[in-house]
């Protein structure tokens, strides 16, 4: 199993044994501690900051 990096903090976590938060529109993926930190021109928290309409959804 290959760890994959959080796209915000770049920490590596297992791809399947970890609950990622993933944008349902652009695919922006962050780890749970980063959900409260991610922000951008389009929003923050559960609203994806990187695209106009995306929302961060739990990967499981
Ligand atoms: Zn992170
Ligand atoms: Zn997005």
Ligand list: zinc ion
Percent strand equals: 25-35%
Ranges with pLDDT <50 over ≥5 residues?
Answer: none
Secondary structure tally, helices: 1
Shape: globular
Structural class: mainly beta
Helix content: under 10%
What is the terminal separation in angstroms? 17 Å
User: Largest sheet, order of strands side by side?
Assistant: 4-3-7
H/E element sequence: EEEEHEEE
Question: Largest sheet, if any?
Answer: 3 strands, antiparallel
Arithmetic mean pLDDT: 92
Brief write-up:
By secondary structure, the chain is mainly beta. 7% of the residues lie in helices and 30% in strands.
Verbal overview:
The protein is mainly β and 60 residues long. Helices cover 7% and strands 30% of the residues. The chain has one helix at residues 32-35; strands spanning 3-5, 12-14, 21-23, 29-30, 39-40, 43-44, 56-58. The strands form three sheets. Strands 4-3-7 form a three-stranded antiparallel beta sheet. Strands 1-2 form a two-stranded antiparallel ribbon. Strand 3 (21-23) and strand 4 form a beta hairpin. The longest helix has 4 residues, at 32-35. It is globular. Bound molecules: zinc ion (2 copies). One zinc ion (ZN) binds next to helix 1.
What's the structural blueprint in terms of helices and strands?
Layout: E1 3-5, E2 12-14, E3 21-23, E4 29-30, H1 32-35, E5 39-40, E6 43-44, E7 56-58
Antiparallel strand pairs: 1-2, 3-4, 3-7, 5-6
Which terms would index this structure?
30% strand; binds zinc ion; three-stranded antiparallel sheet; two-stranded antiparallel ribbon; mainly beta; 60 residues
């Amino acid at each position: 199993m290959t760890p994959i990096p959080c796209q915000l903090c770049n920490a590596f976590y297992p791809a399947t044994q970890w609950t990622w938060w993933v944008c349902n529109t652009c695919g922006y993926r962050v780890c749970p501690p980063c959900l409260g930190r991610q922000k951008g021109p389009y929003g923050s928290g559960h609203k994806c900051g990187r695209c106009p309409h995306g929302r961060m959804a739990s990967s499981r």
